[in-house]
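Fig. S4 source data, part A: sequence.
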Amino acid sequence: LYTRRAGHERMASTGKSSPQKYGRGTITVSQRGPTLLVALCRPRTKNAFSDDMYLDLVDVLFEARQNDETYAVVITGNGSYFSSGADLKNVKFAPLDGQSRNTLSKATGKFMLAMLQFPKVIAAAVNGPAVGIGVSLLFHCDLCYCSKDATFWAPFTRLALVPEFCSSVLFLETMGMPKANELLLMGKKVNAPTAVEWGICAKMIECVGTYDPFHPNSLGSAVCHEINQNIFSLPLGKETSKIFVSMVKGRHRSRLEAICKEELLKLDERFDRGDCLEAYNQMNFGHSKL
C-alpha cells in the first residue's frame, strides 16, 4: 500500500487496501478502487482538528491529486463523531505581542486552500456530529451524505470568531439568508433531516451501526460504493468526472479563494484585538472543542 519517500509514507496505486495510519497519525486511509477513503482519526478529541490533522489532510490531498489511479476522495470520521471542530487546546487565543497571526500561512489556511484547489471529486460521509470547520468544509465537497445520527453546528459566535472557509457566502448561496443565519448568526444546531432539507447534504444513507469507518457497512464504505458504481463504472467515467468538477467548481475557485483569504484576515483582526480571548474566558470552555 505505501512506499517511503523522503521520510514520508506515500500512497501506492492499488485496487483496494487495508486501512493504515497516514503521515502524522491523525487520519487513516484505505484505497477503494479509484476512490480513497480518508477517516479523521483523533478519537480522544472526537476527531477535533489540530495542526497535524490539517497538515495530514493537505498531504493526502496532494498525493491523491498526483496519483493517476485515484479519482475521488471521501472524508469521514472514526468513531461516533465526524468532527468536533477545531481543537481549542491547539488555539492560541492571546494576541501575539503586536504581530498578526497570519492564519492563511498556517496549517488551517493551507488546508483550506488545498481543499479549494483539489481538482478531483471530493465527498463527505458525515457519520455523526459535525461542528465548526467540520460543517464549513462540507460546502466544498462535490457530494455530501450523512447518517441519521449526524448533526450540524457552527457556533462561531460563541467565541467571537467570524464565518470561515467561505461560509459567509456559501451558506447563504446554498440555503438562503434566514436558514444560513440560523446556523451562522444564531449558532443553531440542526439534525440530519433538516440538513437534507436545507441542501447541506444530498440525502441520508442507512448504514449498520458501526463506529469503524472502514467496515463494509459503514457510511464511508457506502459512499465509496455509490461513487464507484455511479461514476467510475461508466465508460470514460474517470476522465468525465474531472471535466465535470472543473466546469462546476473550477470557475468559482478564484472567487472562493479571495473570500477565504478575506475571512481569515478578519479572523486575525479579532484575535489580534483580543476579542476571541475575552469571549473564551467568559464562556469558560476549559478543554471543550469548537
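Fig. S4 source data, part B ends here. Residues 76 and 125 are 5 Å apart (CA to CA).
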